[in-house]
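CORE FACILITY INTAKE
Project code: CF-77B
Contact: R.S. (postdoc)
Sample description: multi-component assembly, two entities in total
Requested service: structural model of the whole complex
Turnaround: standard
Below are the sequence entries exactly as provided by the requester. Do not edit them.
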Amino acid sequence: MNAIEISGSKKSLQIDFAPMVDLGFLLITFFVFTTEMSRPKAFGLNVPDKGNGIESPVSATITLTLKENGVVDYLEGNEQHVLAKGVAYLYGKPSLRDELISKRERILKQFGNDRQYTVIIQPTAHTQYKEIVDVLDEMVVNDIKKYVLLD
Amino acid sequence: MSKLNKIARKSTWVDMTAFVDVSFLILSFFMLATKFKPPEIVQVQNPKSVSSENQPENDVFKVSFDKDGKVYISFSPDKEAQEKAQQTAEVLSRQKGLNLTPAQISAFKRFSVGGIGVPVEKLPSFLNLTDDEFKNFKQPGIPVQDSVNNQLNDYINALLTATGGRKPQNVMLNGDNGTKYPYFKNVLAAFKKNGIFSFKLITALEGVPEGTPLYKTHNAKK
């Protein structure tokens, strides 16, 4: 009696879990391929209506012309009063970010605050969407309150 | 010999219970932490931004443009947006004299979740496709190339007429990294013409670069 019980119960305890592992990993691979981890994010953009222009002092304005492949021509001031101009790069050195930061410092020195800091973004026919979003992102990163996307 | 056999048999038995535990733990993680991918009719690679605002899911009107400049419109699958899709199809049918049948209008609703990118005049034949044909159909994109024949304008105009001039709550722009600016400009022009000036661009999350003003304010909050 005793001997039979022991041998019987011993056998039933041993379950082969290998198929269950197979199944588990099969389901994992299914979920890995059909689902996505990070949801896309939303980046707010407001474009100006026709007619309501912005007023800002010439010395606090910088115009960025987006060329191809992240090359940006910058022009401080305006066409009539060019304070400085040069080339900066979105994805290289000298970077556009450094230029925007140094411009802010100059504005802070002149005005005492950066409320008038205005960036005008001028894309060209060869500009890619990625560069436009990256430049707009640069505005957010550098905490620039006034910027406008021209067309 | 018999002794050897015994030893060999014993060593092949591995206890898989812990393995099962681990695999199901990972499985439950993936089930809870992820979401199913939405159907992809439009293939786009979104640019990155530091914005961490989540994309709205309900009542979305989305305009997508891929790297070849093909433009598509889509509505989210919730009830409110689907109602707007239906009304848009009805108004478009009336404005452009398309004479869409109820079956075609319901096809418009179904296809609008994935994306509709055909010129207005091709809409009736496009809406006759079955669901399977739709998935494999290569849509030419809504023409936006010039301001004279910017048909996105027609679609948006129909949407606004259908909702009685009320602007859609969430206007999303879903652009590809490689889209050239003129296409983006024409998409914006169509919206501006209809008095919509506020959008949300769909982007992927990116870390805030160190040493920038935004990075400092983020750290100050912590």
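Facility notes:
- Chain B has a mean pLDDT of 83.
- Residues 212 and 218 of chain B are 10 Å apart (CA to CA).
Invoice: internal transfer
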